[in-house]
Amino acid sequence: MYPRNAIGHLQKLFASFPVVVSGACQVGKTTLLRLAYPELDCVVFDASQGHLTL
Questions:
Q1: Rounded to an integer, what distance in angstroms lies between the CA atom of residue 23 and that of residue 2?
Q2: Phi, psi angle pair for 9, to nearest 5°
Q3: Cα gap 38→27, rounded to integer Å
Q4: Distances (CA, A) of 6 to 28, 32, 53, 54
Q5: Where are the domains of the chain?
Q6: How much is the pTM?
Q7: What are the tens digits of pLDDT across the range 30-49?
C-alpha cells in the first residue's frame, strides 16, 4: 500500500469544515478516508456505476 501523505492535512480540514473528497477513478480516495477515519461510515457514490455504497 502506498503511504497516504494527505491524511494529516485532511484531518486538519475536517476539524473545521465538512470535507468532500473527489477525483479520478481508482486513485485511493476511499482508502484515504478509511485510513484517516476508520471509526466513521464512508459514503461512496460511483456515478459511472450508478450506485451508492455505504
A1: 17
A2: -65, -40
A3: 19
A4: 11, 8, 23, 22
A5: 7-53
A6: 0.66
A7: 888 888 889 988 777 776 66
